[in-house]
Queue: 4 jobs
Job 1
Amino acid sequence: PRVLQVDWRKAPYEKMLEICRKAHHHPEEVICFCTGTRAREVAAAILMGADSPEKLSRMTGIRTGCKVECIQPVLRLLNAAGVKLQKPPGYQWYGLTSTLWDLPEAILGKEEYGKFYFLKDKEVMEKIVRGGGNE
């Protein structure tokens, strides 16, 4: 078998951490369940020159299984690193989908949306991204 992997320890740690946090992923978070690829490895590959989902696949092996579940984290990490993506021809991937992080502040605290717990969910997710766990 051929193993595609980037040694994330060879990338500048603080820059790798910054990309992960800006993308709202904990560095140790598995973002591709088919390959077991973690956010830190993808961020490191970006720092080492990968500037597209395809280049990340070639460097890390991410998106070589189902090709569906990990495209959003890949796009978020590239976006967090400041990479401006152009959609390739065909249907390989679409743009970013909206998440909790993209909701306008005006919506988060609105009483009529209170049943959704946006603010509490966002607070919990921020703890996870920062590595605070269940504290």
Job 2
Amino acid sequence: MNRRNPVILATVYGLALASIVFTRAFKAFTLAEVLAVSAFICGLFMFWLTRRQQPGVRLALPERLIVIGSLLGLVGLPLKLVFSLLGVGAPAHDMANHVSTAGNPLLLHVHHLFFNLGFLALLISALAWMVAAIRWQSA
């Protein structure tokens, strides 16, 4: 059985790419964040599924990078929740268009840093898959 599930890999990369497109092209921030979180959850699902199907098999480097990126991407959400519960951030912040009138919006948007770090790990994993495919074809 091939332990690399192409459907899950395509889903992870597709959701991450869709999140970036919706952020940049359409300025649909809420939808983009939902897509990003979905990509990261799908990456963790890939890890769980691989461990369940083949418990003793190590993940390949690109797969490990997907798991690391997924964990990094999801770390920002509890941190944002803690800041929000503590009242740190921007009290008059409009979540629809990210316009801030008071407070520190950077603390309220700290999860974006972790989203970007997660996306960076996903990008590096995609590059690692491409390098492996090129090596496989040339061998």
Job 3
Amino acid sequence: MKNRIPLILLLNIAGVALFCSWYLPANHGAWLPVDSAIFHFFNHGVSVSHAYAWLLAIINNRAFDACSLLAMGCLMLSYWLKAPTAGRRQIAIMGLVMLLAAVIINQLAQHLMPVQRASPSLFFSDITRVSDVVNFPTKDASKDSFPGDHGMMLLIFASFMWRYFGRRALGVALIIFVVFAFPRVMIGAHWFSDIAVGSLTAVLIGAPWVLMTPLSDKLIAFFRSLLTQQNIGQIMSPAAAKVINYKGTFWVPFYIFPFFST
């Protein structure tokens, strides 16, 4: 761990510097023109093409958010299927630790970052919102869009995939991140900097202390010893214990949908 402290601190400094590059300059400095250009690029077609407006509405519907959970689950499942019984339990408990870390990092970021701003669809007046064109439930605005918790959760997922499954898993996880985080930017529910600054800052500061120290491994070991079949059987009914421990494998539910519906 001592050997990694300098790298952890370097990543933390990079996160703070990234945030300051956006927070300190008047009107967010160079970030505002970038944010504005990206938003108007995608928003221009809303009033021109009804099909395009429908596309944005669909990929920002809650059902599409559920697809992001399915994509993450499929990636983890691909490694789970290759693992022996003990390895499968390890992967499932790793998912529990990932969920715990994501919730804590997200909550700390939401409370510690001194920022509250409306999404671009509410900030600009000369635009067309998707909800004004398409009668379909979709997320096209937010009164407080910073930091992007949707992107934050996906980046934390990618970090855990890299830590426990390697670069190939990271590559797939980053594709999932782009596919499912950027629709919010395209529709105007988030600024680009909500993710590029807000989400990334939180991950650069929080994730290294979880994944580059023994913390995540110790938490996995703790839950592994706590959530044995014998212990589960003592606190739950036999039927429930059988459901959770299918063929000796602990199944951990991932209750993170609320983060993807904001």
Job 4
Amino acid sequence: MKLLLGNLAIIAAVVLFAFPADAGKLKMRDGKFYSGVVEKLTPTGIHFLWQREKDQPQIIKSGDSDMLFQAQGHASEVRAVPFDDIETIDGVTTDRFKPLFSSNMFYRTMASLEASRIRVASTGDFVHQIVAVLALGLVMGLLIPIALLLLSRVVPGESLSFFGALGFTVVLGAVGMGFALGSSELTRMFEFFASSGAQIGLTVVLMLIIAGVMHVGTKFSFFQGIVFTVVAGLGMVLARFAVDTVAKILVSAV
């Protein structure tokens, strides 16, 4: 049963990360929309990782080949976009987006994870994408759980098993995505959240909720819940650098 569950988890992870990423929408003042994710704020604008369709090899477009694994994924490129040209980012106006991106840990972490997914989808053909997925999976499914496992031996309280740490990473990823979307919606709807202080406060509240649920529903302490959340979130951000490195190598080989 454990082997079956493990295999199902691997399959689910591969399917999740291999899906074409659709991290968000950039709406321009001229009415155009772009799919992608914000990677950086500058004093005058954003660095936007744009995801677009990639031209396929002629043999694939003609439909005369069974070599579908040669089909290319998406293409991506980073563009500097000035605030003056932007109407909304994920439905949020630029003045409210700045504190959301810079001060909300959950939104920033999930944006970094989505950037990793976009780069996975733009590394080349199916084989290259699988290699990039494995690089991301290595960090998400091995390095982060090992870090949590070792940390649980140091932080006072119960110790995590490897599969317990892996489960926490997966659940935190799912919950983090929900919190990121919720934070974006709250920021879009209420002007109250249009400040760094409010976004930091929202981040703290969400972290306390995770730690509280973890403490009540499991044998782990409230403090452990906070520490595990911070470390796993940091690991998800750092996973982007591993994917970036692999993606650059693979793209240069295409």
